């Protein structure tokens, strides 16, 4: 498989004051703790997990909006952490973000045309893009048509649009530099259900036309199932299971994945009536403590003594199914 993005042991720790009697020991929030995955060209990896598990932090660390505490990120075989500022800018054009909130991610003082043109103007001013003003204007028209916006909207401001239209503007802006990878940070969670379907179909159409790769984050398991080729399940800063979407939904192996899928309603009332819901006890542990064992231990209905002291590694579920990986002593040999 031709890998576009490869992430190795990515960690993102945020300082959170000091602890101890003399306040000498630094305290951290371990938002992302040793995450590894890869995305092939033209592939969509869905990243799913409950609020606070570190999904959005992964996106910001990958794009270098946050400087990772440790770990390596390779895009087209280049280690982004080893690049100087100009080299990083050149490579970052291949990786763009669509943010969660279309109401907050667009500059209210800029017109639609200026918002979409801004990345191209910045790269032109840096000498990294050879486009004159006329070429940029034509590119803006092309992008607006591509995402389903009328060209006459170019001089309108964000407050004049609906949520779905604003997200289309955000998608057009992300496509301005012709990237290879889109980091979609819950791009449909703030939209009505009917509009969600339109935006998801737009993502799929764009991917088919340009061969894009996606890291797609969502809370809604139905959204992840619809858009993804593979799914990674995240819990408390760690990836606990990865698999093709069909295998994961039919045969979840990690107890957290099983509980997560059991919480999603099924539209067939007969199946829904017979289904057993898994209720997890307790609350999500604090992310400012690193544990020697499995991070899901306190809430796991199938925990064993070894889970408290040994951290299970992400490994193939079976010798015959290396694509399905799980970080659980019960789910892997």
Detailed description of the structure:
By secondary structure, this protein is of the alpha/beta class. 32% of the residues lie in helices and 25% in strands. The protein is built from eleven helices and twelve strands. Helix 6 links the parallel strand 7 (181-185) and strand 8 (213-217). The longest helix is centred in the middle third of the chain and has 18 residues, at 193-210. It is globular and about 65 Å long.
Entry summary:
By secondary structure, the protein is an alpha/beta fold. 32% of the residues lie in helices and 25% in strands.
Using brief descriptors, characterize the structure shown:
11 helices; eight-stranded mixed beta sheet; four-stranded antiparallel beta sheet; 25% strand; 333 residues; alpha/beta; 12 strands
